[in-house]
Structure formats: structure tokens, C-alpha cells
Specification:
- With about 180 residues, the chain is α+β, with helices and mostly antiparallel strands.
- It contains four helices and six strands; from the N terminus they run αββββαββαα.
- It has two domains: about 100 residues, Ribosome-recycling factor (Topoisomerase I, Chain A, domain 4, Orthogonal Bundle); about 70 residues, Gyrase A, domain 2 (2-Layer Sandwich).
- The radius of gyration is 22 Å and the shape is elongated.
- The chain starts with a helix and ends with a helix.
Length: about 180
């Protein structure tokens, strides 16, 4: 019963870590990543579709992303959605593909990206604490329903806190690594 609660707690906290990693991948570091445009969708026959599903998206060097749509009639639409997404660059349409030339990051941009990373970390920690609260509530309900003793309840709450501390430390470690990556020139 309690082991089930612990496993559930870990599973939900793992999901928070995965969301954090996904969010951090959208941040720009010294080297440009295609994850920056991952959330941009183009209207493809009436359906909002991610860019990587309407063409190939490649980081061709440290500062350039190239999008080669499979259908050339999408070039104008892709160009438009990238401009609307406001990712800090203007798309260059050469008739065959769209290139995004990202300027080298300034110190100020690096600090902004680091700040965003910390915001993502705080979001993940809040999610982890919410999972902890839900798990604690389940333990308290078991105690109230007399399915476990007070000693079992106390040790279960301690175990949930240990799990929570472990995941909060993971968040700090992941974000510290990402911040170092962002600040490295």
C-alpha cells in the first residue's frame, strides 16, 4: 500500500523532471538547437503541424538552422509563423529553404536565458511539491481510515520527504548544468 504510494510519487516526479528537460531544451545556448523552433506550428491543410513534420529541420552550424519543407508552397506560411513566433531572428527564404541566422549571444542574452532556466526550475519544484502534497494526503487518509498505524504514517511521510528532496536536488543539478552551458562563451 505504502510502496504503491512511493512508486506513484516517483513516477509523477519523474514526469516533472522530463518536462523540465524539455523546457530547458528550448533555451538557446552558445550553439543553436532545433528545439528553439520545436513549438512553432504551421497551418498544414487546416491542421496546426510542427515544422519538423512538414520538412527537415537541421542545425547546419553553431548559429544557423535550415528548414527544407517537403512542399515548396509552404515556404511563405513557414516564414510567416516564424516571424510571428518572435524567436529573435528573421527567416531568410531563398525559394527552396528557409534559413535562420542567429547572431552570437551577448552577455545580456545569456543572462536572460539563465533567468528563464531558473524559472523553469521553479516550475518543476512547484510540480514536485504538489506531488508530495498529494502523496502526503494519501498517507493521511490511510491513517484516518485506520489502515496504517501512526508510526507507519510518520515513517511514510519521512520517506516521501526524502524522495522529494532527492528530486529537488536533481532539478538543481540539471539547471546548474544548463546554466553553465548557457554562460559558456
Amino acid at each position: 500500500m505504502l510502496n504503491e504510494i512511493y512508486e506513484n510519487t516517483k513516477k509523477h516526479m519523474d514526469k516533472s523532471i522530463e518536462v523540465l528537460k524539455h523546457d530547458l531544451n528550448t533555451l538557446r545556448t552558445g550553439k543553436v538547437s532545433t528545439a528553439i523552433i520545436e513549438n512553432i506550428k504551421v497551418d498544414y491543410y487546416g491542421t496546426p503541424t510542427p515544422l519538423n513534420q512538414v520538412g527537415s529541420v537541421l542545425a547546419i552550424d553553431a548559429t544557423t538552422i535550415q528548414i527544407n519543407p517537403w512542399e515548396k508552397n509552404l515556404l511563405k506560411d513557414i516564414e510567416k509563423v516564424i516571424q510571428e513566433a518572435n524567436i529573435g531572428v528573421n527567416p531568410n527564404n531563398d525559394g527552396d529553404s528557409i534559413k535562420l541566422f542567429f547572431p552570437p549571444m551577448t552577455e545580456e542574452e545569456r543572462k536572460k536565458q539563465s533567468k528563464k532556466a531558473k524559472e523553469f526550475a521553479e516550475k518543476a519544484k512547484i510540480a514536485i511539491r504538489n506531488v508530495r502534497r498529494d502523496s502526503n494526503d494519501k498517507v493521511k487518509k490511510l491513517l484516518k481510515d485506520k489502515e496504517i498505524t501512526e508510526d507507519e504514517s510518520k515513517s511514510a511521510l519521512d520517506e516521501i520527504q526524502k524522495i522529494t528532496d532527492n528530486y529537488v536536488a536533481k532539478v538543481d543539478e540539471i539547471v546548474a548544468k544548463k546554466t553553465d552551458e548557457i554562460m559558456k562563451v
